[in-house]
Write a structure and sequence with these properties.
With about 120 residues, the chain is mainly α. The protein has seven helices and no strands. It has helices at about 10-15, 35-45, 50-60, 60-65, 70-85, 90-100, 110-120. It is globular, with a radius of gyration of 14 Å. The protein starts with 7 loop residues before the first helix and ends with a helix.
Length: about 120
């Protein structure tokens, strides 16, 4: 809710206490969702170096994330984080992974259209 209210600092603060439970298996917050949201909040705060490790948690634990939508989306978010950090090569790699996974998705999905536009600007 705090991200939707454009208050990423509050989102980070609310989710700070959940970090110790990130790798637990729970029915209410699975797929490392709190880590993903913390990463989004850090990106919105302009702190990509804090965001990237949160997103990396999802990639490091595919057994927890499984087939959740955050699995491909985390690659896009890592691309965005590395783009902000100025590492265009790594950013392109993550955008390409995301776009490869979603190559057969409906081309009108807004986040896919946005990702393609962002990727085009990396070249």
């Amino acid at each position: 809710m705090k991200l939707n209210q454009h208050d990423p600092a509050a989102a980070v603060e609310i989710l700070r206490g959940t970090a110790k439970y990130d790798l637990s298996v729970a029915t209410c917050f699975n797929a490392l969702y709190p880590a993903y949201i913390r990463g989004l909040a850090y990106l919105e705060l302009g702190q990509p170096r804090m965001a990237a490790p949160e997103f990396q948690k999802l990639l490091d634990h595919p057994g927890i994330v499984g087939r959740d939508v955050t699995s491909p989306l985390v690659r896009l978010q890592l691309g965005r984080a590395y783009k902000i950090m100025g590492d265009q090569v790594t950013a392109r790699k993550w955008y390409e992974e995301f776009l490869t996974i979603w190559k057969d998705a409906d081309p009108d999905i807004p986040i896919l259209k946005q990702a393609k536009a962002e990727y085009a600007k990396l070249h």
